[in-house]
Structures are given as structure tokens and as C-alpha cells.
Amino acid sequence: MSRDGHVDLDFAGAARRFRLGLGDLETLQEATGLGPGDLLHRLHAGRAYRFADVREVLRAALIGGGAGVGEAHALTAGLDRMPCLTVIATATLALAAGLDGAEDERVGDLARGEPAPGRPDGRMAFAPFYEAAAAMGLAVADLRAMSLWQFAAYLDGFNRARGAEAQTPTTPAPMTQAEADGLWDWIRSETGDRDGDRA
Asked: What single string gives the DSSP state of each residue in 164-179?
């Protein structure tokens, strides 16, 4: 897995880059109606997903990896001619890369590894990411381009750097520890396997 959420895989006769940044994960959730963590769990368990969801994962990850929109649509339109297990495995790996980040370097509170209860509908709430970005002065386009790992590293560094500084009227207050803990608990609940296993 990579820090920027990409994975390079052989697909449709060529090596292709798949990447799901935060904006791509948001698009994927809107297209499938499923939270990315929930969808990864379903793919990993081999049940309760639709082939259309697999197609959406691959389309979003191809576009996120740099493929043109037309190319991504053309490639995913031809999935019926590919081996089913290869298609599902590719989608699972692409989604896992976007959600897991770098296994050799866990960031900040993500290293605690304690799963929190998931939301009842299994979907991600993206508002906390935008709220944190506003507090940090991070542009929306930059936020959406980040992987979950990159966002975690950015937020962790922001909190460490700002924790010791005196606040001035023109300086936005950093997230409180309770707010940061709540955000990290939510991220773990959305990206972790609900049975305690990681894909």
C-alpha cells in the first residue's frame, strides 16, 4: 500500500494506476450508496455487493489514478469480457489501497487501532474532513486530492505544531483533543474491517 493511496495493477492488458483520494471516495459513495469501508468489507467477505459497485470502484480509481474519464468509462464498460475474479480482486485491492495507506508507518491516532462503532448506514460522513480542512486553512481541492493517509499525516502535524502555540485573535483555534479523537475514531470506524480483520 502507498501513502498517496495508489496501487499499480495489471488490468485490461496493461499496467494501470488505481488511486482513490478523498474526493474519489466521496464520488464512489455517491455512486454506490455504500460507505467505502462498508463496500471494502463486502468485497473482502465476498457477499452483499453488486457488480455495478465493482464497476464504480474501478471507474473512480482509474480516474483517480490519472486515466481520462472517457478511457475509464471504456475500460469499465468491457468488464463483462474479463475474468470475474480478476475484476473483483482488482477492485478490492484498489479500494484497500485508498483506505489503508502505508502499513509501515501508521499516522498519529490511527495507530491506536481500536475500532469504533460504525454508523448504522455504513456510509462515511465527509463533513468532518471539510470542517478540519477549514480549521487548518486547507483548500477544498487540496483536501479532495489527498489520500486518507496523507490527510491523517497533515492533521497530525497540524495538531502537534499548533498545540504549543499561543492563540492570537487572528489565528484560528486548533482542533481540541476531544475533536481530534472523535475524528480519528470516526476514520477508524469507516476504514476498518467491521469484524476486526483488515483486507
From this structure: TSPP-TTSPPPPPHHH
The domain segmentation of the chain, as residue ranges, is: 6-100, 108-191
Q: What is the pLDDT of residues 100-129, one digit of tens each?
A: 766 666 555 444 443 333 456 778 878 888
pTM of the predicted model as reported, rounded to 2 decimal places: 0.69
Q: By the 8 A CB rule, do 95 and 58 touch? A: no
Strand, coil or helix: 158: helix
DSSP code per residue over 105-131: S--GGGGG--PPPPPTT-PPP-HHHHH
Residue with cell 491506536: 112
Between CA 17 and CA 33 the distance in angstroms is 24
Angstrom distance (rounded) from CA 99 to CA 93: 10
